[in-house]
């Protein structure tokens, strides 16, 4: 009896553990490349782009299409080489597009250090399909590294969003009554 109880408690504890976070790594070896990821992202998951285009020059356009099943906060960090005589990328722009192609988020340049340029991509996402797009120009051995973390929105942010949606609903109802 004690063994069965212990096994049942162990099984219940194991089932209560959060799902294992995953890291999905995308390796591109060309300046122009794209992929679609099948597994949806959840809280704690990460997306990593590791791009190195040896000996290539020209337009950079790399896209990764993915899905999110629940509201999540994203926090992305990118860096790319800007050494004037070596590998480099320039005019790099990283955007997150919605399923209709509309711009959802765009990166903010965070500065340069040790031959690397850095930018940040952060914001809130609702459930849906998104495309992460990096554009720019590459010159000889271009490298781009991007890491995006997905997290559950903070309760205060979720409460503020719910309050805002409630206010919009009230305003719409008031306008209908006035007509």
UniProtKB/TrEMBL annotation:
Residues 151-176 form the Ice-binding protein C-terminal domain. Residues 1-21 form the signal peptide. InterPro entries: Ice-binding_C. Keywords: Membrane, Signal, Transmembrane, Transmembrane helix. The keyword Transmembrane applies. The chain crosses the membrane at residues 156-173. NCBIfam families: PEP_CTERM. This is Ice-binding protein C-terminal domain-containing protein. The lineage of its organism: Bacteria, Pseudomonadati, Pseudomonadota, Betaproteobacteria, Burkholderiales.
């Amino acid at each position: 009896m004690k063994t069965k109880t212990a096994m049942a408690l162990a099984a219940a504890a194991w089932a209560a553990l959060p799902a294992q976070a995953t890291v999905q790594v995308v390796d591109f070896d060309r300046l122009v490349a794209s992929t679609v990821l099948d597994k949806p992202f959840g809280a704690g998951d990460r997306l990593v782009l590791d791009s190195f285009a040896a000996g290539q020059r020209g337009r950079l356009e790399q896209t990764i299409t993915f899905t999110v099943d629940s509201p999540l906060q994203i926090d992305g960090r990118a860096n790319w080489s800007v050494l004037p005589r070596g590998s480099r990328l320039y005019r790099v722009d990283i955007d997150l597009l919605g399923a209709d192609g509309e711009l959802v988020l765009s990166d903010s340049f965070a500065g340069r250090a040790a031959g690397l340029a850095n930018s940040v991509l952060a914001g809130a996402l609702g459930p849906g399909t998104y495309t992460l797009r990096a554009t720019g120009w590459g010159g000889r051995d271009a490298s781009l590294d991007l890491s995006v973390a997905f997290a559950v929105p903070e309760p205060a942010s979720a409460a503020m969003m719910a309050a805002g949606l409630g206010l919009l609903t009230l305003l719409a109802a008031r306008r209908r009554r006035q007509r």
